[in-house]
User: Fold these one by one.
Assistant:
Number 1:
Amino acid sequence: MTHVQKLFIKGFKSFAKPTELVFGKNFNCCIGANGSGKSNVCDALTFVLGKTSAKSMRAEKSANLIFNGGKKGSPMKEAEVSIYFSNESNEFPLSEKSIKVSRIVKSSGNSVYKINEKVRTRQQVIDLLNAARIDPDGHNIVLQGDIVKF
Ligand code: ATP
Ligand code: MG
């Protein structure tokens, strides 16, 4: 089974500055004060996996996923999130031992997807993730609010 090695976030929601989160192979836990961005980390993960509904990531529209400047800063033009997946056991049909999947959303709301830095369609990303049995709408992903809705 693959695992997330690293998450890179830049300009996504509350993460203005380029931020890298390194994950362990097993259980990972994210702690912090209310409003510090814990749920935004989960939103960032599903964003890369190809979630189309901005509302599921708690934003009115895709452009609202871009850092809005907060209280003092200036708004950014685009948001970029990348997930680095391990491919040690060839879970993905690619030769690289680590797979970088990226999504960039522009202020127009349009998204660009990349696999190992090469531009790909959303469907190509979905197909690649499917090969490793990853589904952005899988019931193993429980976002903030899901339990309340349930
Ligand atoms: P809680 O413990 O209450 O669940 P949390 O750590 O999960 O908090 P998040 O929901 O991840 O917090 O983050 C909320 C913060 O993200 C808010 O301060 C909000 O203003 C900020 N935020 C959301 N979207 C944007 C955006 N587009 N630009 C800048 N900040 C944003
Ligand atoms: Mg939260």
Note: The beta strands are 4-10, 19-22, 78-86, 98-106, 111-115, 118-120.
Number 2:
Amino acid sequence: MGGRDATMVLLDENGIRCDGRKIDEPRRIMIKAGGLKNADGSAYIEFGDNKILVGVFGPRDVHPKHMSNTDTGILRVRYHMEPFSVGERKNPAPSRREIEISKVIKEALEPAVMLEKFPRTAVDVFIEILQADGGTRCAALTAASVALADAGIPMRDMVAAIAAGKVADTVILDVNNEEDQAGQADMPIGYMPSAEKITLLQLDGVLTPEEYKKCVEVGVEGCKLVYDLQKKALNDKYFGNKGD
Ligand code: CDP
């Protein structure tokens, strides 16, 4: 992975980060519900320099049939990075990382989706990373929740996601690519605010127990900010005049 600069100052003496943000300041986030006419639901998100499109299809028949479950619906998630989404061209073949992130996002969405309401069927979530800049799994999970809601899939809540982390021994909100690569810790969090449930929590790096607790707190507060933008995107489409 490129972009690492050993001389980069991740946090200056005024508490300002390498991209000009304060420690608890998220990147600019823009979410749009809808946009793809051939999908049952869709969403587009810009999360800093991440640009991600999500299409949702279903509930629909499962092929091959033996993969279906008579008691419940199933959720299938494909996280896919365009070769041009990163500085150094990504091999178009599915990578281990993409397979892992697909699984992580699926498991983070499952508690939110009322799969029991549509047995024998599948809901497919296709995530296309058009541009990546650190934190794509959180941005993708956030957009996937909006796309599922846009598809009218019954849900307990939407999952909002953002990463907390640590740079220069300081806990920060919303880890960018440079901070991810040169920082001390990255903790992606997915959270359902109404249900007050964490559905995604990963940690790359080392934290003290106090820092761990602080990261979870900061991350959950960040998810609440993201959640407001998810609701706004749906409101704009269904009750505003910016929808399709
Ligand atoms: O994107 P996320 O932070 O969820 O996952 P990661 O595996 O921690 O990757 C961090 C970042 O590394 C990505 O967001 C991309 O910007 C970058 N990356 C890359 O440059 N080339 C790859 N083949 C994969 C990731």
Note: Residues 209-238 form the longest helix (30 residues).
